[in-house]
Amino acid sequence: MCGIVGYIGKRDAAPILIEGLHRLEYRGYDSAGIALVRGKSLSVFKSKGKVRELERLLPERLKSSTGIAHTRWATHGEPSDRNAHPHVDASGRFAVVHNGIIENSAQLRRQLVANGTQLQSDTDSEVLAHLIAAHPAERLEDSVRAALRLITGTYGIAVLDGERPDTLIVARNGSPVVLGIGDREMYVASDPAALVRHTQSVVHLDDGELAVVHAEGFETFLLDGGPTSKTPATLAWSEESFDKGEFTHFTRKEIAEQPDAVRRTLSGRLEPRFQTTHIGGLELAARELLAVRRVKILGCGSAYISGRLGAQLIEQLARVPADAEPASEFRYRNPVIEADTLYIAVSQSGETFDTLAAVQEIKRKGGRVLGIVNVVGSTIARECGRGMYLHAGPEIAVVSTKTFTCTAVAFALLAVHLGRLRDLSTARGAQLLQALAGLPAQIETILTQEPAIESLAQSIARQQNAYFVGRAASFAIAMEGALKLKEVSYLHAEAYPASELKHGPLALICPEMPTVIIMPRDELFAKNVATIEEIRARKGPTYVVTHAGEPLPVAVDGVIEVPKSEPELDPILLNIPLQLLAYHVALARGSNVDQPRNLAKSVTVE
Ligand code: F6R
């Protein structure tokens, strides 16, 4: 989604800003722009398309040490040069970059036009530049404050005044803004990924805060009040983790990183002495956890699907009723919040707007909510205040792979913890701990099967549609497999519980409709064999992801075998080949694997 970068200091701002924009490319965007203070005026360059197209517009010498830049993901108005940010007021003195959505922009635009302002774009964001200009004040922050008072909606903004090269203003309400502290220079970004090359010392703004940023430092204020005090945090991620290294795609790199990512998720959390797990960030005493009568998991996309898997793990291991729901649906249905329910919000980025809104709704109604989040210090992590970090490392590809796996592992840790407080025996606890510790090596084994998965992908890539089916926890894996395939390859893929096929989907089975069946060798294996028979009777190609063992009692078009874990953990491993499958189908079809069309990494708007 949209990205903001800002710089104020002693060096040339343009290359720093452009490099920052490149770092944010992974989030998905459709246009880019930059504004710099040169002398006592602004220079603004914007372009539809990629950051490199913006670079082509820039003059060779562009001396300036103060600027802001933006990557836009269209919400109001098509992707175009004129809709790209920064937006400027009529005099060209103020430039604004904005993430989020201004909900009353239509009304504000009408008022501005009625007052004689000529709007240059179709965006909601442009009104901010005009409103700032319409409220002249001694201090730039006061003009910005006056403008922000008139808008409703969400924003992370950075504002530049052509007449004040020594000041940048940033503010936040619902859309992240981070300050990076350098040596007599300051950086601004919506995502720490843009800062990591320059500094590890950052300050996250909270909602309702504004910062006045100078080269020598910064001051933070409440939007409608006095100063606030901020303690800098240290970024956990190194610059190298944002590079593809030996891989051609971040997606492939992140699939390969899974053994190490899972090791980090597990690190320090297995407690063999008591055959349980230790989750430091839970901040709930055993007595409080024992009083939990229900678990409700919320997230979007793959985070929601990992929640479905998490719910299964919690029900199986802790025997506590659990379910998952898309956060986007939950927040709009006036949910009943129960005191003895434990709510869990799942988010890789920690910035997904719908998930954040669900967390806020739960808290407003007095509920307890834990976060399972990858990005340290992100909004959802801070809003929840307790939970588990995945420690999966940065996920740059738009689609989630390693964080799906690490989230499932985090849920397994939580399920064992809750289970061991209840009826899960020490013997079973010990088996599960051993199985958890064995997952990274088993994932490594699965990754060695890439050539076989690739050849299966070649067959699927020739089709236009695919079904993914599974039963019980494997249905969540079918959902994730189908989502991944459609996201990166644009092939239409749908997931069904295998038991549902004969209630409708079977109508589409034919030689052009392949079905991927996720079938661990468990008590439902025979039922899945029957499903394959039904599909084959209608001449549908069948591809099976299963465990090694006796030859399948039915002919299929392809088989991928994964190592066996404990039954509750098997879905985690069964998912890995589906990631490679989606990746290779995408390569075969020539799609942009790392940045699929229309998708963004961190969905910070509704
Ligand atoms: C799928 C994918 C998305 C995200 C979803 C939630 O590959 O990446 O479906 O899972 O947008 O994102 P987070 O986890 O950042 O809240």
Main sheet strand line-up: 3-2-4-1-10-9-11-15
How many strand segments? 27
- What small-molecule ligands were found? fructose -6-phosphate
Largest sheet: 8 strands, antiparallel
The CATH architecture classification of the largest domain is 4-Layer Sandwich
Q: Whole-number average pLDDT? A: 94
Radius of gyration: 25 Å
Name of the top-level CATH class of the largest domain: Alpha Beta
Secondary structure: helix percent: 25-40%
Name of the CATH homologous superfamily of the largest domain: Aminohydrolase, N-terminal nucleophile (Ntn) domain
Query: Structural class, from helix and strand content?
Result: alpha/beta
Query: What fraction of the residues are assigned to beta strands by DSSP?
Result: 15-25%
Indicate the CATH topology of the largest domain: Glutamine Phosphoribosylpyrophosphate, subunit 1, domain 1
- Counted by DSSP, the helix tally is 18
Mass-distribution shape: globular
Count of spatially separate domains: 3
Low-confidence stretches: none
